[in-house]
Amino acid sequence: MSSLLTNGLPGSQPAGWHSGAILEVRDLSVDYIMERGTVRAVRDVSFEVEPGEFVAIVGESGCGKSTLLFAIAQLLAPPAGISAGSVIFKGENLVGLTDKQLAAVRWRNMSVVMQSAMNALNPVTDIAAQFTDAMRAHGVTSKQEIADRSAEVLRMVGIDPVHLRSYPHQLSGGMRQRSMIAMAMLFTPELVIMDEPTSALDVVAQRSLMVQIKELQEQLGFAVIFVTHDMSLVRHFSDRLMVMYAGQVAELGDTRRMFAEPLHPYTIGLMEAFPSIKGPKVKLAGIPGSPPNLARPPAGCQFAPRCPQVMERCKTTEVPLYSLHGERVRCLLHEAGSAQL
Amino acid sequence: MTDQQTAPQPGAVDSAPLLRTDNLSRHFRIGSGLQRKTLHAVDEVNLEIGERQIVALAGESGSGKSTIARLLARIYKPTSGEIYFQGRPLSKMRSRRDILGYRSDVPMVFQDPFASINPVFRVSHGVMRCLKLHRPELSDHERHAEAVRVFEAVGLVPGSEVLQRFPHELSGGQRQRVGFAQALAMRPKLILADEPVSMLDVSIRLGLLNVMTQLRDEQGVSILYITHDIASARYVADRIIVMYAGHVAEQGPVEEVLANPRHPYTQLLLSAVPDPRADLNVTAATDRGEPPRVIDPTPGCRFRWRCPLAIEICSAVTPQLKQLAPDHDVACHVAQSGAEVKAF
Question: Which residue, among A204, A214, A278, would best test binding to B if mutated, counting the most B CBs under 10 Å from its CB?
């Protein structure tokens, strides 16, 4: 069997930073400052997003994936705050910018689609009013222009513009989520950040929405950061995959490679956690145990207490992120033959 | 001999279903005055749940699967039709004793483990209350021993220690196990589990699904597993009932139905499952997943607007369930005409 890893992949990225990246996250850490002490929810996360790339961030609840996303969009509110690192979007560090400076970037160049459209849309105004609000806030005042653009983006996501007059409760869950995406498209951003946009939908609507997002992306060329807890969902849609565990990057690399040859035991566990609808029925165990309490993180590898391949060393050694043919993994099993980042 | 024929025989119980419904319907009235309309959440559903059986009830939001769970739990009263539990019609159960007995025979486990446990009490509170109410014959000491037993049966080990924790000290998966332990404390015959794993992380879902199969195999409990996740249905269930818009579309043994799905809707559901091991199926990607319209429905198949195979009769006559293979029933005119159905 030829290995995807050693042969290299057509789409795989070599190690190191790219000046062409639209977004560079460097050594980003986020702390929640609580009365009882500080909880580091995101720890030294670094990655970059190329223009037009689809990067998926996967992990279980509490792994810091949503916190990371909020940190990138500069939406953190106390008690959470960025304690170290930078978020460089199109050459400009967003960390430390004032709200006014951020307003120029948000929505025009970078937009966010939140998890629950039911809560994110205003229930007492119709869709048109919410589109108008967003456009007015960014300096578009012509009524005609607003109406034209609103209708255009709705059509892009496959909704009849008559629904501009609809209120959120009159739309189905799928249509609400589509209008959220339409809203994010108002200014043709270069980066769209999505926080589990499909988790409230059932399988058929979910898949249809994923296909739509991918089509829009190909058509308009924006980059996507897509956060989800369901790895199988992004299998066919993302270029690169970042698996997070306990606030750290566990593995980062090409999606196709990661599904074919997962490196980190946690990734392997996630992959085996899905019962299949075809083939023989086998008993699966999932990943027993639960993620560590980040207020009191264990010494050594964060995954060691749940790891089936745990070694004595894992319990005491702080594991760095290794680079293996451009793929990154935080696991001592891959220490040999790799470079430390 | 005549006596034996009328009296229920111990051996015969196995063949009779534990629970069955007869043309069960539940409609909701919406609007008022001239705007009054009727929403048909569940229409003429006949289903059976056997002893020691996990039956998966699958379908999308709005298909009526949660309404069925609530009907079976006696939260809703049926608009028409009847539910028979161990041969007894539920509408005839009026006394407090009967109703309490039914509640302990058929408890429910809820979807959201963060909302279904009282946060201000230790988790022992809920299970102890169940035991006090439904098994008053137990002494304090026996009650505690029983609580430990049910906690350990669902994998909360050591039981005596976990019982003393508060809900916030437990993870989502552990809380959902508490939900199953509370149900188990009542020595149930049938547990109604409404999407019990959909709020949990992928990595711990399997643990809960394994608890369900253990409860069936070791405690002899039947489970109605309501889900929209077909892959997990296949993993735990013996039988599957696929619902669409308040009707049963297809039912049968889970392996048979998923290997040879004959209803276009079942085929659509199967094609939409994100299977990391399979290639992307793009043929069904055009289906938007719009929920069915069940307000004042006209006769005819309710899937016809989304069905690529719909023929004339589909918009005139509501298809009835018909057995097309051993123990495999399908409500589809096209499939019943003998044609091969390959919609998605």
Answer: A204
- Residue of A173, A208, A274 with shortest CB distance to B231: A274
ipTM above 0.85, yes or no: no
Whether the CB-CB separation of A267 and A250 falls below 8 Å is answered with: yes
| H or E element in which residue A266 lies | helix A265-271
Contact A135, A149 (CB under 8 A): yes
Domain ranges of chain B: 16-107+188-336, 115-187
At B254, which helix (H) or strand (E)?
Answer: helix B254-259
Please enumerate, as own/partner, the contacts of A298-305 that have beta carbons within 8 Å and a separation of 24 or more.
Answer: A301/A330, A301/A331, A301/A332, A302/A245, A302/A246, A302/A247, A302/A248, A303/A245, A303/A246, A303/A250, A303/A264, A303/A265, A303/A266
d(CA A42, CA B278): 33
* Domain B16-107+188-336, CATH number (from 2.60.40.420, 3.40.50.2000, 3.40.50.300, 3.40.1790.10): 3.40.50.300
CA A305 to chain centroid = 26
Structure tokens at B29: 């009235």
- Nearest residue in A to B61, CA atom: A202
Residue type, B46: N
Length of chain B: 344
Q: What is the pLDDT of residues B253-305, one digit of tens each?
A: 999 999 999 999 999 888 888 766 666 655 555 676 676 778 888 899 999 98
Residue from the list A174, A203, A271 with its beta carbon closest to the beta carbon of B228: A203
Handedness of CA B10, B12, B15, B19 (dihedral sign): negative
Q: For the packed helices B96-105 and B124-134, what is the interaxial angle rounded to 10 degrees?
A: 130
8 Å CB contact of B234 and A281: yes
Q: How far is B106 from chain A (nearest CA, A)?
A: 27
